[in-house]
Amino acid sequence: MSDQNDSQQRTEPDIETASEQASDREGPAVVSRRWLLLKAGIALNGLVGLALAVPVVRYLLAPVRKDSSYKSWVSLGDANSFPVGETRLVSFKNPWTQPWDGQTDNVAAYVRREGASQFTVFAINCAHLGCPVRWFPQSQLFMCPCHGGVYYADGSRASGPPERGLFTYDYKIAGGQLQIDAGQMPSLSNTAKLVNISSPATNSGRNGDCGCRG
Amino acid sequence: MPGMKQTGKRIYDWFEQRLQVEDPIKDAVLHKVPRNTASWWYVFGSAAFTLLMLQIVTGILLALVYVPSAAEAWNSLNILNHQVPLGWFLRAVHGWGSNFMVAVVFIHMAQVFLFGAYKFPRELTWTVGVFLLLMTLGMAFTGQVLRFDQDAYWGLGIGVFILSRVPWMGGGLVHLLLGGPTIAGATLSRFFALHVFVIPGTLLFLALVHVWMVIKLGINEWPMPGRLVRKSTYIAEYNQLTHEDGIPFVPGAFWKDLIFSAAVLAAVGVCAAVFGPSGPGGQPDPSITQTVPKPDFPFLWIYAVLSYLPPSMETPFILIAPIVMIAGLLAVPFVASEGEKSWHRRPVAVLALATIAVGWGVFTHLAMSTPWSPHMSAWSADTLPVEYLREATPLVRQGAVIFQAKQCRNCHSIGGHGGERGPALDAVATRMTPDQMRYKVVTGGGNMPAYGKNLSPAEIEALVSFLETLHPKGEPPAFDASQQAAQSNAVPAGGSNTP
Ligand code: FES
Asked: Residue A96 domain-assigned?
């Protein structure tokens, strides 16, 4: 009995006089039972809350999935429609869409055809912070409008803040169609591969064919 | 007349008997504040709250028309701008209200910092204030996303690239932010939920907690040099101050709050009417690469900082700097919870604030002109001043054409037009010899791409002959002294050795 009394005092040190009167009238046993029931009520709510939180968290985390489950092979058109030695801007429908995506499912990429069956498909997203790079065929450079990143025709970094070359998509030729493995905004965290991480020191003599030194 | 007054009183009493709010409101309104806090310096907090109310009201009004769907948002904004009567004005008030709110919140914070108002016992008020600041910025960013134009799309892209740098969880965080693998319908829906429910709800709740503490703890007294805050004595000193030299908050200090709030609201209205709404810009079609994305005003400084970071610093800076900044802000009242409040005796605080303010100003200003970005259309749009070509040989003219056609102009200006990424070339011939130019063009270096592969030797010759002519009249072009000496040595017929 005295034990219960103690615990009661410990748990509610600042109880008002009204309830003190009540405890006088009803005795400590009744009151401590009420506290016990209150605790049971809190525990029950906690339990139910937890049970409900599990599906909520699962629902919230629904978009977090493996990259591969978002990606699939998309056709960019007839492989022969890309002239050898040139870089072309193409757009394709994102394979992962909802009917209310509007124009956002219209994704673009740069296709560079190096040989009969040799392609490089660049993401248009700057490897720095993702702005859309623009291709200038005259100077054979990609330029980024955001922070001034510049890339060479092969996607390697030429200057500016990017730490690496442009991202590329995996590609294959199937039934004469050029296909890429797409569906995800390319960024540093996903499967976008790195191209030619070139340090400034090696920039000048790239591929040894600049025929200029000496 | 007296009958009406009596009826009025009866109605009032009927409500008061049930609501019982008269006493707490009287307490809050009439509590005494130190006389010298009835100052024009103390009006920013209430102005921020007024702006929050304005944003809530105009936000609800906009939500009557806006469609939070990736397929329709952009169209619905254009309909707001052009078809709904005064829809443009409401968008403008909401947009300018946001700019003003961010500005006023920052000014409020700077004032509180300068006046030492975060010291004991107001540490928690400051902490809550830091979260209010973060949420205000969160509202500004999510609001920019709801505009769902090209700037919004690529601004989100930058968010993706920043998050993707987080080790291990980067990919998951990106998916969470976007609601899927790309910026699309799900992305706009979740930013709508954030902008309309989650952040404003929390913001309003925290703002009320903030105001509650201001009322309970009293308004910070005007800092006096030499009057130190000590935890043991401060409360008693403050109570004595308000007791001896206090005035009721209403009307003593409150009339200034009211007038300033009205002035701020009027300023928002005038800016909205004069400058109109911002955007929506181009449609959110990621395959349109002809775009120069730019963030809204509050984030311009970040945009500039990201442009100047050396590549190797990028990831560490992006991941660590925000944490350090927020932790620093949160730590302020706990590092300096006692002591001097007056800015006369806090040189480090004043210097820190001045440095931050100047730094912010410089970066924001730079971000407005973006000298680091190539001018994407300079090569085809900017003309070459005719005096550069008046006496030009065919080779020089050919060089000038190459200069334009190869996009050199996108980064180098001539005659004040062109990009500012690289140095202006008006007087390049006085700085570099032809050999040096040739080498630079071919190999690049620094921030310049190497053009060795993209220019034929003949083109390089032409380009360099054009560049050689770029020097002010009467100022000779640079020459290679050793080469000249060698050449003049090689001449056997007596001339002088000193050119
Ligand atoms: S996003 Fe391209 S340089 Fe920053």
From this structure: yes
Query: Are A115 and A56 part of one and the same domain?
Result: no
- pLDDT-derived band at A204 (thresholds 50, 70, 90) equals very low
> Mean of the per-residue pLDDT values for chain B?
89
* Domain encompassing residue A31: 2-60
The pLDDT tens digits of the residues spanning B420-449 come to 888 888 888 888 888 888 888 888 877 888
Residues B223-244, mean pLDDT to the nearest whole number? 89
Q: Do A163 and B69 make contact, defined as CB atoms within 8 angstroms?
A: no
Q: In this predicted structure, what is the pLDDT of residue A47?
A: 97
Q: Is the CB of A157 under 6 A from ligand 1?
A: no
Please choose, from the candidates B149, B148, B151, B410, the residue with its C-alpha nearest in 3D space to the C-alpha of residue B292: B151
CA B465 – CA B395 distance, rounded (Å): 7
CATH architecture of structural domain B378-479: Orthogonal Bundle (1.10)
**What would the CATH number be for the domain defined by B19-369?**
1.20.810.10
Q: Are strands A157-159 and A168-169 parallel, antiparallel or unpaired?
A: unpaired
A134 lines ligand 1 (CB under 6 A): no
Ligand 1 atom at minimum distance from B158 CA: 1
User: Looking at the complex, does the CB of residue A140 fall below 8 Å from at least one CB of chain B?
Assistant: yes
- Angstrom distance (rounded) from CA B91 to CA B59: 9
Q: Whose CA is nearest to atom 1 of ligand 1?
A: A129
Closest listed residue to residue B39, CA positions, set B181, B169, B222, B177: B222
CB contact under 8 A, B443 and A212: yes
Q: Is A149 in the pocket of ligand 1 (CB under 6 A)?
A: yes
pLDDT number for residue A202: 37
The atom number, within ligand 1, closest to the CA of A162 reads 3
Q: How far apart are CA B457 and CA A212, in angstroms?
A: 9
Structure confidence by residue, pLDDT tens digits, B291-304: 888 888 888 888 88
Spell out which residues of chain B touch residue A211, defining contact as CB-CB under 8 Å. 452, 457
Domain end (from A60, A80, A107):
A60
Average pLDDT of span B37-58: 94
Check if A150 has its Cβ closer than 6 Å to any atom of ligand 1: no
Q: Which of A19, A39, A60 is the last residue of a domain?
A: A60
